[in-house]
Amino acid sequence: MSYKYTVGVIGAGNVSQNFHLPIIKKNENIEISYIADINRQNAKKAASYYDTNFYSKDLPESLPKTDIAIVAIPVSIRDEYLEFFRANNTHVMCEKPFATSITEFENRTRGDNIVFCNYMREHFKNIQYIKSILESSKFGSLRSVEVSETKIMTSTGKSQTAVDPEKRGGGILPEKGSHTLSQIAALFDGKGLELQSSDVIWNDKLDIDVNMRINTQGREIEAPIDVHLSWICDSGTYIRLEFERGIITCDHTDPADPVKIEGIGELDTTAKGASTSEAAMYLRWKKFLNSISEEKRLAKNKTRQDSGARRSVARLIGEVYDNEQPE
Hints:
This protein has 327 residues and is of the alpha/beta class. The protein has helices spanning 14-25, 40-49, 79-87, 102-108, 125-136, 160-163, 165-168, 172-187, 277-298, 307-323; strands at residues 5-10, 30-36, 53-55, 68-71, 91-94, 115-117, 142-150, 193-203, 206-216, 224-230, 237-243, 246-250, 260-261, 265-266. The protein folds into two domains: 5-118, NAD(P)-binding Rossmann-like Domain (Rossmann fold, 3-Layer(aba) Sandwich); 121-276 and 313-323, Dihydrodipicolinate Reductase, domain 2, CATH 3.30.360. Strands 8-9-10-7-11-12-13-14 form an eight-stranded mixed β-sheet, covered by helices on one side. Mean pLDDT is 87; it is low at 156-162.
């Protein structure tokens, strides 16, 4: 009989109710122990649906001990929970952004517990296929990469957390860019990514438009990577890779969008990966649980499969913020 993990959920918002909870509910090796949220009604409603306990306005110390915790609350109030879970060796699945500097990253990963961030986009089928192209060199050497994730956003209908840079951990760079940077890190194995330059447009303390140039220095595959993130313009959402013998592109935010070669059309792909966000979440949880199982088997903390990408994302975000401060 396999071990059954107990899971506590911190934050009963949309991401927990629409993604995490439906996935873990289907896993017969997981038992949902409680759902906690500062909004009592949200916690109670979600707990009722998943037939579990609910808590509201509780300090971390008052929560039941579990094997795993989902942390899906604003960045500004996470650290006391992460510290509590580290002290109790509770493994953590944390919502993005995980960290916006190397200092934050190291503080949040210094324990013996396994800590993952929900960078589920790296499991998208199109990203996995692009990775296989990079590894095969079927189109020759890589010349350049361009990534754009832009959409005009207003604060209408947004919660205070959604427009408060301190509560959310920053602006578009951690909010949208952390996912995009995690995909870049996945494509290049999270190492050798160096920030060459950056430019930020600020609205008060909120970064609303970011341009970055990243170099893949000291790697077998070397090419400049230009990244544009924006809430004030709409120039498209895509990843575009120029090779010696072709240019491939797709919408990296849509797991169902096929990889295309310019001038020819869709490429026939047999790559493994997720074609829906739900499937990507499932694969993220599978990787997380496998990491915990391996850690238990070895009785050592050697399975930080997720740390390379998370470290690169945190470092790149931190370097942009160090270079570009609001006036």
